[in-house]
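Summary for the lay section of the report: proteins are chains of building blocks that fold into shapes. Here we show the chain for NACHT domain-containing protein and then a coded description of the shape we predicted for it.
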Amino acid sequence: MKTNELLIELRKFVLIKSGLRNIDPGHCKIISEYVFQETKNYVSETTIKRFFGFANTLHKFSLFTLNSLSQYIGYSNWESFCSDKESDISDVQSIWQDLRLKTHAITEISLIAKKNNSGVPFNATANRSFFYPDFDYFLKNSYQFTTISAQPGHGKSILIAHMVEHFFYAENALYKNDIVLLINSASVSAIIQNGQSLKDWFLKEFKFGSVSELISFFKKNPEKREGRFVLILDGIDQFLLKSSYFKIFIDFLYSIEENNFFKVAMGLRANTWVNLQPIITGSAFLTKTWYTGLFYDSDLLSNVPFLNTEEILHTLSQIEGKTMTKNDINPSLLEQFKTPFWLQVYYKIKFENELLDLKNPLLRYELINYFLEKKIFLAKHSTEKIFILKKISDSISEGNKGLRVAKEKILSYATTYPIIYEELIFSGIIVEEKRLTTAIPIEVVRFLNNDIYTYFIFIQLTEKFEYKASKEFFEYILKTFNNTTLREHILNWTIRFCINRNEIAELKNILKLPFTNEEKNKSFDFICYVAKYELSKPLSSFNKQSVGSEFIDIMAIGRTMSTLYKDTIKTISDNVLNEDAQIMLHIIECNINLIDIDRAALTNTMHLLKRNYKRLNELFPINPYDLILYFYNNLVNKPNESKSLEEKIIKLCHQIDKSPAHRNEDLTTAEMLTFRLVLITLFSQKNYAESHRFTMAILNKYPNIFYIRHSVFSPFLLIHLGQTYLKLNYFKKAQRIIQFLDKIISSEYTYFTNFITTSFSIFKANFYNYTDNYEQALIEINVGLKIAAEYDFKMFEVALMLIKIDALKHTDATEEVSNVIKELLHFLAINKISMPDYANLNGGEFEHTFKILKSYRKHQ
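The coded shape description reads as follows.
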């Protein structure tokens, strides 16, 4: 036996002794400890890694290492082990078994290389067992060769490794007597570097002059054959780019005589297969003996499908060390992970940056940025690569088969930088394909992944505007990108770009320009995700010192309530160093806590606010702490000394009323937060006349305030005025507001949120209750309850159930009233919340029912 063969045997017995069937780098430390315990000889973890092929072996293993490992498995030394193995096979080794042992040595090294090159630990990868019956069919039937073809990064090499283990090497492998010879790029490189031809190498290793000679021998001597000989070639694409090697490979395929025991499986990139397929389909023999497989896609020239959800979740569960479900992962990431190489990028970035999680849509963009940074921006010839990629992205158009460009259109760049162009293809950034549906087949070029294309489109956009996000920048996005998915990605890249550079004010353009309401809401959420992430990063431009009024403005004109919004406000208020910004954020937090009926959180935030009571007087037209205290007392059932507060509100009302008319642009965040708190305070006090006067005063100062389309404050004000009209019995005026709101909400560019939609449902339900249209009221209530439950608007759920009780009482639906009351009390109990007075928006005649319900709740 050769030394390599003996080393393979030693590795096998060390694994058996250690109780392992497979090995990864993490096991090497354990084996080192086992060897020391057994022999008292210390063989380092690094040496064990080299022994099993996980680290480069620059020299032969020392006799000490080989003796120690031999002693570990029960021999006195390495020489004793070698003698024993030689005697085992000297008399019984057949030609087939000799071949099997020699191929095993090469295959095992190739397998280890594949496992080491896996971007995630091999045992975490999906084994794609759906492919096994297809490969088994190929082995059992009269085909000579098959292809496993895919684009780079689609997991073909890992699939091959799993299949070799499953069919030939696993403990319960189906075909243990078959010979499998796995040759990868490293094997071919080693042969070439040693100055050998493939033919010379084959003769030296296997004592046959060629594959054809080997086949002829076993055809003439069938009794000497003990199974099949399966040759698997993978990672040889770089060699097939050279015409000389390509010719050798074609000659090799033609040299395979028809037989039933020699099988060839080729792992090829799709762009290599583009060149090979015409030769195969042009030969009757090769076409007959080629097994395409069940999963072959003739358009993509691939038979390795994208990962399915189950396979993605399997790998992520292994990486995360816990069972992952679809709900644990952002849907856009789940889509991205269908291509396996993004899982590899995630595995790398996870250990460098633990601040991002799988629910965060920002992770998608960080993965793209990380991948391109390593592959392009920090790589050799980065300037030339970026230049070519920008030219390709600029030339791409969208057709039936996706985003691509005819190669002839970018041929000048490919021929100017041929080596760099080939690097981009081989590194999997761009791919070449044949377009066969045209009259004359043409070559096309596309990015491997649309996300990469989008990134380079964005890069060109920033260059066009000299790296300055401005109103014109966003207007260009609005005008140029009609594809909604592409526009969403461009907006998200822009949000990331602005927050990275702390150019927050420019983000207001998204809300002010006529992007769709869905785009505005998604963008607002993405602003929250990026802001939280940037604040947690060291050396970020958006940091504790730099968070200021521009960011607070966006938070104030945006969402009123959502889990993400709540987390963002809390995270930033806990970290910001600008005292005025922190105060504003605390006011927003209190507003959230009131809607959430969260007494504990409200108490904590009010405690922080009280420390700055004096500064609150300076920042706001009326001290918001006094207004929040009113609601706090309401929440904890404390009496309110409201006379002095009423006087302050009336005084402020006069001041606003006497103010000259202002433009909408003059409305400040401090005013918006104050006006909101004042109006809901007056409404809660049942001081509807003063609430109406205060709204009219605001309208006097800002005559066009109802026409603001970029802030939730305008629809809030309209809904509040409508509710006030109901209380004052101005039903026609309330109806006109409903009609106006219906009109502006149906306009695509108006910015509104789920919170506003639910508020509007409450307003309409109240209107129908007041006008005795109880059936329509119940329809609106159910619409509102569905949204409120989905987005956890607790105060609205309570308010809507109270309105529902009122509506049902008027329809004499006694049993249904009882059911809703039980539902309401159950909701309060499981959420451990009270039923504050400000949650009751019904008319005066419902007051007695409300007091009974509240009293019942108190005594439970």
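Put simply, here is one thing we learned. The mean pLDDT is 88.
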